[in-house]
Amino acid sequence: MNPADSLQEKLDAGKIVIIDGGTGTEISRRGVTLETGRSWSANANIAFPDLVRDIHRDYILAGAELITTNTFSTSRDILQREGLSEQTDHINKQSVTLAMDARKRYAAEATITVAGSIGAANTGTPEIIHSDALANYREQVQILAEAGVELIILEMFTRTADLKAAIEAATETGLSIWIGLSCIDHNGQLELGIRGYPQGESIADAVMVSSSPHVKAFCIMHSPPNVTSAALQELSSSTSLPIGAYAHGSVTGSRLVGQPLDGTDPQTYLEYAREWIACGATIVGGCCGTTPEHIQVLTASDVRG
Length: 305
Hints:
Layout (H helix, E strand, L loop, with lengths): L2 H10 L4 E2 L5 H6 L14 H4 L1 H14 L3 E3 L7 H4 L8 H18 L7 E7 L10 H18 L3 E7 L2 H12 L5 E5 L1 E4 L2 E6 L2 E2 L4 H7 L5 E7 L3 H12 L6 E4 L19 H13 L2 E4 L7 H9 L5
Parallel strand pairs: 1-11, 2-3, 3-4, 4-5, 5-9, 9-10, 10-11
Antiparallel strand pairs: 6-7, 7-8
Helix pairs in contact: 4-6, 4-12, 6-7, 7-8, 10-11, 11-12
């Protein structure tokens, strides 16, 4: 059985699934200076492949049942801003290869799911027309699918227009889709957005446009840990699909080498995770600033029941 199908069976049975944590911030934590522009950790796939592979390995050893390709910022429109658009195909395929290699080294092909990450291309920027967004998402998701990912995760989506285009593109692959929504508390109101970029739309709005039968789960991700529980409560009232949480554990500025992670320690993160599970989450992991140590604490705890 495909490992993604096995994972889905666990979720459908109401069992807790632990996924990996942050990749880009982990690359930075291990000494690599990342691009300050939009391409973030994309170039690490070709410049520091052993490091990316080692991070996947460490999450597997920490007990994660799903590892995510380092492709959050590797769509053509993002790469072209850093002069890397000609390497779009290579960078994306290389990322899948590194995750697959890490899994193969531990003979975990049957138990660890490799998910392809598709990041929202337009967070914090003016919206582009649907056809342009669709073409951008379609190219990247097709590369990832052809390279062998078993699941697509749409991450850090904060606008329904972008989400609709990404779902349409991902649905064409026939793979299962998980949706990652980012939320903030804006003037006392919970809404889609990231720090500094409230979008004026709700979690319910996002669920409403996510009508593809290939959508299998919703997560609250890259959101402050202290608002994630409230977001999960709203999410659980908007969908009957499995829900999950993987919050950020640090400020995004901690990407720069030499700056300490101003974030949530593993034990405190575990307490947040227990709250999320109490709110109905059955998928739990981490985003920016979380590490293999955070995932190890989750898997060594009683959160799975």
